[in-house]
Specification:
The chain has 235 residues and is of the alpha+beta class. It has a domain of 76 residues. It has 7 helices and 5 strands. It has a 5-stranded antiparallel sheet with strand order 4-3-2-1-5, covered by helices on one side. Strand 1 and strand 2 form a beta hairpin. The longest helix is centred in the N-terminal third of the chain and has 44 residues. It is extended. It holds the Pfam family DUF502. Keywords: Membrane, Transmembrane, Transmembrane helix. InterPro entries: COV1-like. This is DUF502 domain-containing protein.
């Protein structure tokens, strides 16, 4: 009977050590698997289109992971460089003019181009801030990502009350890949200091992983010295 507590204690230590190791190894293993899966996927798309005489793996006689991805990055960079000069812009406009004549293709191309331009624009404020809105009822607050001010027809129809409307993306927990796009008054949003990456961690973990927050230090107001009363003129 005296050995039972020791066996329970030993089992508890083994379980705690296993859980600790799982917390350390699982994210590392999943990240490694996702990284190599993406590299293999990129290689499978790019490598078949590389002429054999230009493929470094042909001369090395070994498969180099990531070679196709590296070539794709170099190719995309060169296309971007050429697209900035006059000749490159002319070629791009000519290609787009052909795509715009195709009924189905032009819709897909315009939508994808608008999405990439919005996401990759350097000065875009899309999904660079997080906030809180009352949802689904007053007194309940939900985390949202700020997508930007309302524009176009939506802004013209909603900004009739003289208050600026803001588009927000409300993702679900724990998979923030789908959600609701809503337009709410800017005054109804509580802006947060956390980054979108920290907000995504908070959502995925169901509120368990909250970012550290240090409230701003309020400097005390300096008190002005009392003003001496004007001395009375002596006779």
């Amino acid at each position: 009977m005296n050995d039972s507590p020791e066996r329970i204690s030993l089992a508890g230590r083994i379980r705690n050590n296993f859980l600790t190791g799982l917390v350390i190894c699982a994210p590392l293993a999943i990240t490694t698997w996702l990284t190599f899966t993406f590299i293999d996927w990129a290689d499978s798309w790019v490598t078949p289109y590389i002429p054999q005489r230009y493929d470094p793996q042909y001369y090395l006689n070994i498969a180099v992971p990531g070679m196709g991805l590296l070539i794709a990055v170099v190719f995309i960079t060169i296309v971007g460089f050429l697209g900035k000069n006059l000749i490159g812009r002319s070629i791009v406009k000519f290609g787009e003019s052909i795509l715009h004549r195709m009924p189905l293709v032009r819709t897909v191309y315009r939508s994808l181009k608008q999405i990439f331009e919005t996401v990759l624009k350097e000065q875009s404020t899309s999904f660079k801030k997080c906030g809180l809105i009352e949802f689904p009822s007053p007194g309940s607050w939900a985390l949202v990502f700020i997508s930007g001010d309302a524009q176009g027809e939506i802004a013209a129809k909603l900004n009739t009350q003289g208050e600026e409307m803001v588009g927000v993306f409300l993702p679900p927990t724990p998979v923030p890949t789908a959600g609701f796009l809503m337009f709410v008054p800017k005054s109804k949003i509580i802006m947060l200091d956390m980054t979108p990456e920290q907000g995504a961690k908070l959502l995925i973990s169901g509120g368990l992983i909250a970012p550290d927050y240090k409230p701003p230090v309020v400097q005390p107001m300096a008190l002005e010295p009392p003003v001496d009363p004007m001395p009375l003129n002596q006779p």
